[in-house]
Amino acid sequence: MISSDVIRGYSDTIILYLLLENDSYGYEISKKIKEMTDEKFTMKETTLYSAFNRLSKNGYIDSYHGTETQGKRRTYYKITPEGITYYKEKCKEWILTKEIIEKFIKEMN
Amino acid sequence: MISSDVIRGYSDTIILYLLLENDSYGYEISKKIKEMTDEKFTMKETTLYSAFNRLSKNGYIDSYHGTETQGKRRTYYKITPEGITYYKEKCKEWILTKEIIEKFIKEMN
DNA sequence: ATTATTACTACGACAGATATAGTACGTCTG
DNA sequence: CAGACGTACTATATCTGTCGTAGTAATAAT
User: Fold this and answer.
1) A43 burial class (0-12, 13-18, 19+ CB within 10 angstroms)?
2) Among B3, B33, B101, B38, which residue's Cα sits nearest to residue A97?
3) Inter-chain contact A5–B2, Cβ cutoff 8 Å?
4) Which residue does chain A place closest to B34, by CA atoms?
5) Domains, chain A, ordered by start
6) DSSP bridge pairs for A77
7) pLDDT per residue over A18-41, tens digit each?
8) How many CA atoms lie less than 13 Å away from A3 in the CB half-sphere?
9) Which bases in strand D are touched by protein, i.e. have an atom under 7 Å from a CB?
10) Do A13 and B104 touch (CB under 8 A)?
């Protein structure tokens, strides 16, 4: 199992990555994360929705209601220009973070 | 700056890595981390000592007092066999974690 | 005597992740 | 047509690791 403490700093980044491709909503994002990682990582619903709130508050995403006439109304999220900037920064940060952690990792048998 | 939320899941691993080489104490470990990362990452004292407590409680490290006659008595830490096992697991986990996060990282310009 | 350096300890606050539970709406099946 | 199932959330409370702040303790240097 993957400890979520590591992903912690990147759950926002994961969501933004998916929103870069197209606007989406909670359930779909959750499913995509599962698929893309072959079920090795799943973001809990509460984690996901609290991330949406955080991202909104920071101006990294906007939301609007879907127009579906059947089923419950979805809240769609859209990445903002600020969100794109933030995403890029996190990607750069990741390179550094990886280097740092790997200084303390040994391949042992 | 490196967000400590990412390192979060690996601060224990970092400490164990250093204890694999030789027994050590808080201040020295703190300095080594700074050196090894060219000051790009520093573990706060409180974070460090709370990690020692956690590692002790889990049986991953043992402690004993130094015999220095000058200066304050140091508490030395020693990694246990369980600590070594745990360290190895975390190293394997890291490989997976890295793969997962990198699925969501793009090199953009 | 005071300051610097080393080596901690205590305490409280905060943020992100998560468990648990519940709401709301629609489709499908017997 | 009732009840299960799937989708799409919301609310609340708790836990854990990190960190700010502050204080203690011992010795060496000035």
Assistant:
1) buried
2) B3
3) no
4) A100
5) 4-102 (1.10.10.10)
6) A24, A63
7) 999 999 999 899 999 999 999 899
8) 18
9) 6-13, 17-22, 25-28
10) yes
Contacts of B102 in chain A (CB under 8 A): 94
Q: Which residues contact A14 (CB under 8 A, 6 or more apart)?
A: A7, A33, A43, B101, B104
CA B7 – CA A27 distance, rounded (Å): 28
CA dihedral defined by B101, B103, B105, B109, rounded to 10 degrees? 160
Cβ of A84 near strand C (distance < 7 A): no
Segment among A49-58, B6-15, B70-79, B83-92 with least mean pLDDT = B70-79
Strands (E) in A2-109, as ranges, are 61-65, 75-79
pLDDT tens track for A57-94: 999 999 988 765 555 678 999 999 999 999 999 999 99
> Would the pTM count as exceeding 0.85?
yes
- Angstrom distance (rounded) from CA B11 to CA B2: 13
Grade residue A7 by pLDDT with cuts at 50, 70 and 90: confident
Q: Which of B18, B33, B31 is nearest to B78 (CA)?
A: B18
Residue B1 reports pLDDT greater than 90: no
* Residue A102: Cβ within 10 Å count: 12
SS (H, E, C) B39-92: CCCCCCHHHHHHHHHHHHHCCCEEEEECCCCCCCCCEEEEECHHHHHHHHHHHH
